[in-house]
Amino acid sequence: MNVITLLVEKYEEKHYPIPQPDPIEAIKFRMEQLGLTQKDVADIIGSKSHASEIHSGKRKLTVEMMKTLHSALGVPAESLLGA
C-alpha cells in the first residue's frame, strides 16, 4: 500500500503540479480564514494607504512587509515571495 501511495504522489507531482499562489491572493485567503479586514492588515503593516495599494495590486510587497505578514498572519514565506 505504501508503494502505491508513493507512486501516485510522484505521478501527481509530475503531471498535475500545484503552482504557488499569488502573494496578494495568499494574503486575502489568510485574511478570510482569520476574519480580518483591510484595516486589520493596515494595523499590522503600519499604513492604511499601503494596505489598500497592496490589496488592489498597485504596490508590491517589501521584504519587511513579507516578514511582518509572515509573523503576524502565518502566511507561508514561499507564498509571499511569489513565483
CATH topology assignment: 434 Repressor (Amino-terminal Domain)
**What's the CATH architecture?**
Orthogonal Bundle
How many discrete domains?
Answer: 1
* Main sheet overview: none
N-to-C CA distance: 35 Å
Radius of gyration: 16 Å
Strand content: under 5%
Give the helix level as a range of percent: over 70%
Could you tell me the mean pLDDT?
91
Level-1 CATH class name: Mainly Alpha
> Count of DSSP E strands?
0
Low-confidence stretches: none
- The CATH fourth-level homologous superfamily: lambda repressor-like DNA-binding domains
| Shape estimate | elongated
Order of SSEs:
HHHHHH
The structural class is mainly alpha
Tell me the number of helical segments per DSSP (H or I, 4 or more residues long).
6
